[in-house]
Amino acid sequence: MAWRELGRKSIYASVSRILTSKAFRDTALSSNLLSASVGRVRGYTSNSALLGDDTLSCLKNRFLIRRFHATPELLKGRDDDVVGLQKPKKGKFKKKPAKGTPPVDAPYVPPKLQTNGKSTSEKTIEIFDGMTTVELAKRCGQSVATLQNILVNVGEKVASEFDPLGIDIAELIAMEVGVNVKRLYSYEGSTVLSRAPVVTVMGHVDHGKTSLLDALRQTSVAAKEAGGITQHLGAFVVSMSSGASITFLDTPGHAAFSAMRARGAAVTDIVVLVVAADDGVMPQTIEAMSHAKAADVPIVVAINKCDKPASDPERVKVQLAAEGLPLEEMGGDVQVVEVSAVTKKGLDKLEEALLLQAELMELKARVDGAAQAYVVEARLDRGRGPLATALVKAGTMVCGQHVVVGSEWGKIRAIRDTAGKLTNKALPAMPVEIEGLKGLPMAGDDITVVDSEERARMLSAGRKKKLEQDRLRKLNEENIAAAEKKKKKEQDRLRRLNGEEVSDSETEEEEFTRIELPIIVKADVQGTVQAVTDSLKTLNSPQVFVNVIHVGVGAICQSDLDMAQATGACIVGFNVRAPPTSLTLAAAQANIKIKLHRVIYHLLEDIGNFIVEKAPGTYETEVAGEAQVLNIFELKGRSKARGADVKIAGCRVMDGHVSRSCTMRLLRSGEVMFEGCCVSLKRETQDVETVQKGNECGLVLRDCFDFQIGDVIQCLHQVNKKPKFISSESGAVRIEC
Length: 737
Known about the structure:
Layout: H1 2-19, H2 22-31, H3 47-51, H4 72-76, E1 124-128, H5 133-140, H6 144-153, H7 167-177, E2 180-184, E3 192-194, E4 198-203, H8 209-217, E5 234-239, E6 245-250, H9 258-267, E7 270-276, H10 283-294, E8 299-304, H11 313-322, E9 335-338, H12 347-361, E10 364-366, E11 372-381, E12 385-394, E13 397-398, E14 402-405, E15 408-416, E16 422-423, E17 425-426, E18 431-437, E19 446-450, H13 453-497, H14 504-507, E20 515-523, H15 526-537, E21 544-553, H16 558-567, E22 570-574, H17 581-589, E23 594-597, H18 600-614, E24 618-635, E25 646-659, E26 663-668, E27 671-683, E28 686-687, E29 690-692, E30 696-701, E31 712-721, E32 724-727, E33 733-736
Parallel strand pairs: 1-2, 4-6, 4-7, 7-8, 8-9, 20-21, 20-22, 22-23
Antiparallel strand pairs: 3-10, 5-6, 11-12, 11-19, 12-18, 13-17, 14-15, 14-19, 15-16, 15-18, 24-25, 24-31, 25-29, 25-30, 26-27, 26-31, 27-28, 27-30, 32-33
Helix pairs in contact: 7-13, 9-10
Protein name: Translation initiation factor IF-2, mitochondrial
Domain Tr-type G: 194-364
Subcellular location: Mitochondrion
């Protein structure tokens, strides 16, 4: 009991020292800490018994806490000399230990997109400057939160879903979602003025399109063309005698350049359809009419070569009307002008017809603000780098602007007109050549002017990513289709092995040994590369698969040679200079074929013959000759050493020849009685290998003894038939197996 009393007194003494301290009194008065007590100190019946003196008179009539805990508020106000819990002393600032690796931003994780079972890669939406996130989400088929997440990842500030977006940001979001976009521009608040018409000259090959343009602008471009035909898409500005200016686009007429004609029709205002008066309507004439109708562009017909004696313009008009072209003379709205590029007859009437059509269309364009342009052609210059021939559709293109051309970007370093002179700006309907791009764009790409280099880089990277995704998706679809086809063939084979019948529709495809012919294409301009590639792909056949593994613009270089050596490809150069002697020798040592051509006719013919040589061909059974049975001889009673009895058919060869090594077929009244091999063929008493037409012979067929006089014996042999290269008058080519 004594030790308990001693401990109690010690506790009371400690409590008294704490409660009598100045720090505790000040804290208690300011924060009223003791007003929330739940009981009194055990052992005391009144406050005065504990407080005794006047030291704690401030705590009269207040309850005391039963248990004391060290709280941050209590520890903060205590003095240093107080007995009991000590306040932590402030020490010097301690530097945090440096981490071994620098901080790394978290990688961008694309958001999970909503899918409705349909592929979004083929979906195209219209975007414009100032559209909101909500409207873009509705068109893309995604939630607003998903689009806001993409906005954050591309570095844009997200304020409200109803805030307007720039057209570049809208395109970035749409590409991230995986949809194609079509930009719409508004002319509100812009200066709109009249512009010169853009006229595309189209027609069949060798109908005088380039000669007609030469007569209009008094030049001689046609004389400089390789092979006398146009193989590029050219743009010119012609100042007419009336003082007006017209922008002309000259398109090739060969069948291989269909994509060029389609691009020309898509960007033009008026199509001049050139038809030769002595030749009439041809396949490319009908194709040019189809392109113009698809683009909803008015047509003006120019019947050329009216100075020739064999010309018949009336016949041409009847042919055009038969193709569904409403001519003015027949109650339609299509103007027809008879011209001659040689004598320059009717050129003034053609000019008048074009200006009249342009006046009826009231052609106007925006001249202020950022430019909208279209790539007519693109090429690679050895000294100036990638060059793009562009046609300005609206706005003004100025040197120093940042542009995005397809999936490439750059800063316009120089602008040149069609005469090659430097200019500071390009106005609507003005064809110019721009330089300063980082890469070579595709012909037909749109040129978009952006505010900064950063925005140009972002748009270019987004478009390249979208193109790569589309390419991989298409490749995956082809692989899946090939796997399904292979699986179906295997199932048909197993069904035949099990004795099940397979329908003719499932086995109608003949089995060929198909080989692959890899080709590398190099050309002078981007449009020609596309034309040559498309033409080579038309040469695919069941026996040979033409695989264009690489295309490029410019001369043949060492990297092309290395790729050809690694893949076993053939290098095709069109309108490019010959490679250096070192490359030619290296190609000869590596057995790599390099084919250089400047005319599309010769190129396709050469490649077509090369494909025919590479084709394995198909083996077919043909009748080499026929012999008629005139008499039958039997050899009986032969010894075992000389063999069993035999029947010999005495025949006369009626057609072709008969060979002992070939298969024989016995026909009786047109019906096949036997088919087998020949074991003996003699002429008179000598064994021979072949008997020609008109000679008599005796032959023995293995296991065949049913001969009758008048039977016909056919000699069959296997022939390897190669495919044929066929070229039409219009220039279209194909491989026929």
